[in-house]
Amino acid sequence: MSGPTQKAVGQWFASRGWKAFPFQKEVWKAALAGRSGLLHANTGAGKTYAVWLAALQRGAQAKGRMSGLRVLWITPMRALAADTQRALEESAAALAPGWTVGARTGDTGSAERARQSRSWPSALITTPESLSLLLSHAAAAEQFKHLDMIIIDEWHELMGSKRGVQVQLALARLRHWRPALVVWGVSATMGDLDLARQVLLGAGTGDDRGVLVEGDTRKQIVVDSLIPRDVARFPWGGHLGLQMLQPVIDEIEHYDATLVFTNTRSQSEIWYQNILEARPDWAGVIALHHGSLAREVRDWVEMGLKKGELKAVICTASLDLGVDFLPVERVLQVGSAKGIARLLQRAGRSGHAPGRVSRVTLVPTNSMEILEAAGAKVAVAARRIEGRYVPNKPFDVLVQHMVTVALGGGFRSEQLYEEVRRAWSYRHLTVEEWQWALDFVARGGQSLTVYPEYRRVLPDEEGVYRVPDTAIGRRHRMGIGTIVSDASIQVKYMSGGRIGSMEESFISRLKPGDHFLFGGRILEFIRVHEMTAFVKRATGKRGAIARWQGAKMPMSSELAHAALEQLRQAAAGRFEGPEMQAIRPLLEIQEKWSALPTLDTLVLESMKSREGWHLFVYPFAGRSVHMGLASLIAYRIGRRQPITFSIAVNDYGFELMAPEPVAWEREFEGATGREVGLFDTEHLLEDVLDSLNATQLSQQRFREVARIAGLVFQGYPGQPKSNRQVQASSSLFFEVFRKHDAGNLLLTQAQREVLEQELELTRLRDTLAELHARKVAYRVVQRATPFGFALMVERFREKVSTEKLNDRVARMVRELEKAAAV
Question: What's the pTM value of the predicted model, to 2 decimals?
Fold first, then answer.
């Protein structure tokens, strides 16, 4: 088995009418010199050929005949494996006829797995979970003895998650066996490229081995908006919604293939159903795609897109990555994408080829999203892309990896400690932390010593740690991975045929005979049996929308700053572009009644109503930060005077409401500038923990940590444990550790993840520093301003039904519009 020379690759390109891009040649040259690196280039620019043909050329360079597994291609999604395999096989057939390409994911059947184990393909496409499974087999070192190159696709998607940490640890293990291994990451929408390269290549890797190659960044990306005909001056979340249905249908009408992205699965169901009702003639040529639909359904949709048989697909992040859909001409984004990287990623789904223009059209679902659209256009043009948060020392992933390595041939403590520290996320792992982790897998730590099932790894007479029990090994392999989904229930027709899966919490609220919307169909619920919900088709009635858990995506700092810059220009009387012209009446009312927040000015509004005394604050820092900020300020004020606040948040600000008067202006004196005040970062961690139900939040997060660490077993195939059973198990561990093992690092990790991920503590600290630097514009207002009105509606939403909410909001809007007309 050998590969093509660079000359042969050039001739193959020429035969297809192509010319290699400079960045592709740069990758080939670096890889042939044995250097690892990160390739960052636009979607559809030719990244696959850059790294794959580098791997093939390294085969031509190899001395002697090389057999066995030569290349690992790691993809974040199983759905991408088949598409990637077809692309790699096509070029390999022409350039390296001796090469074979296979896939090994959760979808690979047992017969194919057995065949691969007997004779490995030259290149194997796999996922982080399947790679860890391969590392758990005793013959792993033998299987990878010819491995020459690893390619990690969509590195930006993996890097910021525990799956990325899982990849880091796997790379450290493979580099231990193959020190000269060449590793390349492939990425499109990434902010901090140097950090991305360092995380990929690991700690202790000198710059002499790691290169950063940037592709042609001149790809034209057009961002525009569908402006609503009537822009409400008093907006509230989701109020436009389906008023934009006809403009969206008109856009779909004019193009052969369109992707309509929504931010949630529930939203995709609603839009699909309503488009189909408005255009029944499109039945069969529009489709729905999200992660809860059955694999067969998603495969059918993806193939229909590739073949140009579908006019439109309403989808979620399930189509953000990888799969090339050349026929797609247009991308519509319903609602704000909340981040520049996500918007660029979705834009790249259209014009997915070198030289073609990518276009994304924003469809606002409320007036404030028009402001976000204006900011997004500027940020995209400047390519201001968010960086990725990299998990720091997640002990649940480390504990899982230690058991995996113990299964895969065993380890010596000192040796594995040094190996693990070469993974970026564990570069600062201390000896004490390592000893804690070793003790935890060897005997369950301080509190689980008496239970044999938690003695998962024990040293033999030579000091090599191995898994002593085959049953423990079997259980561990079934739980490998860091994707922790909420307990899901299969949804099947009574007559047979699987539709997909839904969260147990939604199904548990249904009674026999209830109707609900799922998979674009109105279904009637019959019964639940053995974690399967049986249904039949219903007709005539609109059903409840299936709800999936998961917090709303907060607006990113880059998008927030871009929006504040647009407000600064508006405060100076400049309204550039159709979006700012459309939202001008709203902003003029806001400025007339109060003031416009900017990067230099923090606007505070106080108001008295029949409900109580309100404070509205507009930091523009995203809903996660605002929740922490509102709780923190309420707590700090409450320390000085006994008072209880109601809190409401959105991406633009937060509201505190008290049942009695508060001297807001005096409270915020010294909040900015040099004096210590409500925005002080001293004692921030303690105050945030005290201001929230931190124990409850940590307990919820601990469920995920416990599952990844192997404490909670989710059941055997066909006999899964219910969500209630898993909750009970993790809650028991949480209480035992809290009372008897307070130094347990899994406990402190759960608390840290709440702070870092749910409350975005780092961003909260940065926001407080920004607020210190802003001047305060304090306004006493007679009625809710446009910005404040949106926050009041958020608070109402928690208390009343949708029908009552609509009536109440309509009445308030009439009153406010009457006041605005004066």
Answer: 0.81
